[in-house]
């Protein structure tokens, strides 16, 4: 097991696989799906993989709300301590005091917690009814044992290890499950992820790349996490947190914001009144190598332009599938080069060019054809 202060430990911890989600972030996000569909969890089996059931906020939140959500079954699993890149919590009393405690398994085996009935006969199903056991294996989500749990569930919810994000998404999609997971904006341009977004099989959740109370999404990190940069801070209890820009939720569950149309001005009005100096009293630029206009800000999409438009990747947080069609993505420095769905731009890097200069990575969109005056599909 890696020990605190050891170099190997620090290097591994930098993989950012041990970031822990805050209760309030889970609550705020889940509320958005319940608002859209109060029965979203009704009679559903929810799996929380890549968790640490005895203390994870995901397990706590769903166990506490088991009856309110009408859940059928809650399953959460954790990865063996030996396999983790950093250890946040010491052996919990829950495990140590249990008759099931096994010192030969505690570090090498994953754990499973299940909630499906009123075990303690208190008259309600809640966190006190969670049953636990060691898994046969280490709890790797790719193991046959955890795959079986995936197959029996309806909705998969977690903050997966950042280093395995692509694999984790494929693991969900292969089984055709509903999901709500945390990820970073960079993932949008991965060749495994973008096609899912383009084809409306995955979208950004209610909160994505958005500051709340002046902060990006903030995660608890292990004590040993090296404090670098301004985005790391310690609270009054000495706990360390990192605030990560460009982070948020990805899902295939419906939520209200996804169906709100973007309110936009015409091209003429944008040129006259835009708050962006790049557009005011100027023309929308055209790319040299692709028949589309450059729209450098999502709020400047001209409501009356029927051709193809290149918009920033952050457009996706405002994307309404009834209003727009996504055509493709251009690559840019630091992005995956072989993304499926790039319109062919004729240059080696597949980046849109304006007056001989590369622009930023862009998503190419156009309005859906059947539309009323607000560009909403009839
Ligand atoms: C980003 S943390 C999130 C933990 C927890 N879900 C939360 O949000 O508070 C990802 C977790 O996945 C675990 N993990 C890493 N690789 C894994 C794998 N192959 N299978 C299952 N879990 C894994 C890590 O040990 C870590 O606990």
Write structural notes for this entry.
- 18% of the residues lie in helices and 21% in strands.
- With 378 residues, the chain is an alpha+beta fold.
- It has two domains: 252 residues, no CATH class; 107 residues, no CATH class.
- α7 links the parallel β5 and β6.
- The longest helix is centred in the N-terminal third of the chain and has 14 residues.
- The radius of gyration is 23 Å and the shape is elongated.
- The structure holds S-adenosylmethionine (SAM).
- The site of S-adenosylmethionine has 21 residues, from β1 and α3.
Strand tally = 17
Strand content bin: 15-25%
Order of helices and strands: HHEHHEHEEHEHEHEEEEEHEEEEEE
Number of domains: 2
Major sheet details? 8 strands, mixed
**Chemical compounds bound to the protein:** S-adenosylmethionine
